[in-house]
Amino acid sequence: MSDYNIGAKIKKLRLAKKLTLQAVAKETGFSPALISQIENNNVSPPIATLSKIANFFDVKIGLFFIEDEEECRYEVVRKGEGKLIPRVISRSGTSQGYSYESLSFRKQNKKMEPFLLTVTEKAHEENTYSHDGEEFLFVVQGEAELLLEDDRLTLAAGDCVYFDSSLRHRLLSKDGSEVKVLAVVTR
């Protein structure tokens, strides 16, 4: 996560608006402690958390994944060059059993954010998230279970789903084995 310095970018946005941790926490629904941990790069937030923070500051989520300020018109990310976000932590401070890799981190002002999600274990909690935008998920490897509102959908390699991100959702490993999913998120 330190490659992106996501925490410093969030802190810079907060300080530019002269807001306290408590004010950001109140408006986003997260605890001041979690905002502090994110700002200090102690934890990596789930994509849904980053999306809510981006919406609060009225910036695109891609801002958190750019390395420099120079705009590029296109971007090629070679195999193994994606930026990995490990240790995804929930609001309550528990591991979410997955990591994600940004597949586009140089191109600014994107309308969509592509990620490779890797679910490495069966999560003990089945809490769901919602945020603005839409999502497209394509299962590359393994068998996933998608919690979508009150439905449980089983998705195998080659299956895909497109949905409104305002629906409560959560991606899980069906049987605890590794699952890889291409996720494209819009704001």
From TrEMBL:
Transmembrane residue ranges: none
List the GO terms this entry assigns under cellular component, sorted alphabetically: cytosol
Q: Which InterPro entries match?
A: Cro/C1-type_HTH, Cupin_2, Lambda_DNA-bd_dom_sf, RmlC-like_jellyroll, RmlC_Cupin_sf, TransReg_Diox_bact_type
Q: Which GO terms describe its molecular function?
A: DNA binding; DNA-binding transcription factor activity
UniProt cross-references to CDD domains, sorted A to Z: cupin_XRE_C, HTH_XRE
Domain (HTH cro/C1-type) spans 10-64
Q: Does the keyword DNA-binding apply?
A: yes
Pfam families the UniProt entry points to: Cupin_2 (PF07883), HTH_3 (PF01381)
- Domain of life here? Bacteria
From the record, what ranges are coiled-coil? none
Keywords of this entry: DNA-binding
Its name, as the record gives it, is XRE family transcriptional regulator
Q: Which organism is it from?
A: Geoanaerobacter pelophilus
